Amino acid sequence: MPLRDHFHSPLADRRHWEGFHGQWPGVIVQDLMRSLPGRYFAEPRVHLGENVEIDVTTFYEEDTPPSSNGHSEDLPDGGATTAVYAPPRPTLAVASDLPNIAAYEIRIFDQRRQCRLVAAVEIVSPANKDRPESRSLFVARCAALLQAGVSVAIVDLVTTRHFNLYAELLTLLGHTDPMMAARPHLVAAACRGVRRDEGWMLETWAEPLAIGRPLPTLPLWLAADFAIALNLEASYERTCADLRIT
């Protein structure tokens, strides 16, 4: 069945694209779990805009706040507060809208290696393409995954923003894909870094997408010598059927 345009009439008048994009990762996970060997598992991950993951969190649980003068002060129980750092004035303070962090993705883990992340499928949203900062954030996240040895698939069905995030990722990494010379704004691509005799190589499998044409099957690499098929067409059609999208 053909790829639909989820962002323009007539489909956009009958269904919200957020519903489809929220459902599709779960369906992809269901499909992957049927073909993944037992040591691997997949999880959907969807978060929109305001959700920010924090790696380090500090807590203050004492009733008496620390001194602001940078020196320790005795507490009533005989203890002492920790010296507080008084930072200087900022060198820059301006009003700024931080980039909208939106992600529709599937992550595949290897539980034999302490649940190490081995592959990710990134489904592009309009928020990933709406501003230069958003596009830079998206491609930087993909580049960081590749540098960590994680294979990455990018699937872009967004027809309202005419940018090629796969091409921008290659530009960030210092490469171009001759197959993408026309820079189509709809694309599906699988990428991985692999060690060869001559050193590390970047390998990609990219196909332009078009409304009215089926979606491709991409290789999803779980190890240097092992990949499974990411059948985008099958999961796409199942999602459309579940949501009664014709």
Q: Any overview of this molecule?
A:
The chain has 246 residues and is of the alpha+beta class. The protein has one domain (11-51, 96-242). It has 5 helices and 8 strands. A 6-stranded mixed beta sheet has the order 1-2-3-4-5-6, sandwiched between helices. The protein has a two-stranded antiparallel ribbon with strand order 7-8. Helix 3 (132-147) packs across helix 4. The radius of gyration is 23 Å and the shape is globular. Residues 50-73 have low confidence and may be disordered.
Short key terms for the protein model shown above:
246 residues, alpha+beta, 26% strand, globular
Summarize the structure.
By secondary structure, this protein is of the alpha+beta class.
The biggest beta sheet reads: 6 strands, mixed
Q: State which percent range the strand residues make up.
A: 25-35%
Whole-number count of domains: 1
Shape category = globular
Counting copies of identical and different chains, the oligomeric state is single chain
H/I helix tally? 5
Q: What Rg, in angstroms, do the CA atoms define?
A: 23 Å
Number of DSSP strand runs: 8
Strand order within the widest beta sheet: 1-2-3-4-5-6
Low-confidence runs (pLDDT<50, min 5 residues)?
50-73
The pLDDT mean sits at: 83
Element order, helices and strands? HHEEEHEHEEEEH
Structural class computed from helices and strand pairing: alpha+beta
How far from one another are the termini? 10 Å
Helix content class: 10-25%
